[in-house]
């Protein structure tokens, strides 16, 4: 039943009578509820002197989302991530990770509370349209990497009470719940661990959407098979376009869609295509990032010194083979061709490594809408891609919770 439906909904570029202008695309996007399912912007809230209310320059401080740029890019909001780096699997580090994640969640809640005229906290799928109608930006909350839950899947209820509605299981390395797609050591559990299956049951019980981005293919397969509600890939890409462990094969995409799930296409450059090696730049950037610690308090002087070092690296070792908007576009259009507009969305990974040449920050997002119009996708299709699909998954999770 799935394939005829997808064939009927696949757009034909020739059906677009003429190329859409950026102004037309922006106007259309402003009329929709537009959500990005992976915003790492909460990390910026820790930067000294940095305000979400100010208009920042991505080339000056490397941040990509703030309120002025959301307005320019017609981005209503999305899922603001509680990201915790993967650490050792022992009691001391579990406690540190839990405390860090709680503080990051409180930082998101504080941002909303400090600017009630600008932000609205969304706890249910129906809240998104209400918050937009009130002229505010939408703040759903998510967890990227379940590591802070330690050995206790029931801690998911603490984060649900805080406002989290999207649960990601792993990140760059395997953890106590699931295998990562990128751990150099290879699989530990060959999918979900016993604790991971317990966490999935908790997420389903609470009404959280289950997120398989960063998890291995085995994990994705098992989540699709075991979850009582459809699975989301909050920021992923297509393996048929670029064979990278973080990307998903067409067969898995079809299985995801057949069970009602959705892939949100990301703009993380190294997942979009291979780039020419730049070892000097990689070494310098690696040393710089090794000197930083997620959530670490910095003085304004230290922050400015850090920015100066990064700009110096850019000047000395420029990134001459950076992926472009065309590379992102290939993943987006391929996913739409394979599973159709009911199963594709946007999760750019802003402030977490996302952004490509030609789409540097949130202010440029109408370019995506312009691409969709140019390829013959309808207003209804674009509404699903920009927010309708993820809200449908959240509504299904809410309904399962009520049962």
Draw up the topology in text.
Layout: H1 2-9, H2 22-30, E1 35-39, H3 58-61, H4 67-72, E2 77-83, H5 91-114, E3 119-121, H6 127-133, E4 137-144, H7 156-162, E5 164-168, H8 194-206, E6 209-211, H9 217-226, E7 231-238, E8 247-248, H10 250-258, E9 262-265, H11 269-272, H12 279-290, H13 300-316, H14 325-339, E10 344-346, H15 366-374, H16 379-402
Parallel strand pairs: 1-2, 2-4, 3-4, 4-5, 5-6, 6-7, 7-8, 7-9, 9-10
Helix pairs in contact: 2-15, 12-13
Could you characterize what this model shows?
The chain has 403 residues and is α/β, with parallel strands linked by helices. The protein has one domain (33-275, 322-402): TIM Barrel (Alpha-Beta Barrel), CATH 3.20.20.140. The protein is 44% helix and 12% strand. It has 16 helices and ten strands. Strands 1, 2, 3, 4, 5, 6, 7, 8, 9 and 10 form a ten-stranded parallel sheet that branches. Helix 12 packs antiparallel against helix 13 (300-316). The longest helix has 24 residues, at 91-114. The model is unreliable at 1-17 (pLDDT under 50). This is Dipeptidase. It comes from Novosphingobium organovorum. Pfam families: Peptidase_M19.
Give a summary of the structure in a few sentences:
The chain is of the alpha/beta class and 403 residues long.
Encode the helix/strand succession as letters: HHEHHEHEHEHEHEHEEHEHHHHEHH
Pairing-aware structural class of the strands and helices? alpha/beta
The fraction of residues in strands falls at 5-15%
What is the strand tally? 10
Helicity, in percent? 40-55%
Low-confidence stretches: 1-17
Termini gap: 27 Å
- What is the name of the CATH topology? TIM Barrel
- Overall shape: globular
* Rg (C-alpha, Å): 20 Å
What's the tally of helices?
A: 16
Number of domains as seen in the coordinates: 1
CATH architectural grouping: Alpha-Beta Barrel
Mean pLDDT: 94
CATH superfamily caption: Metal-dependent hydrolases
Protein name: Dipeptidase
InterPro entries: Metal_Hydrolase (IPR032466), Pept_M19 (IPR008257)
Pfam families: Peptidase_M19 (PF01244)
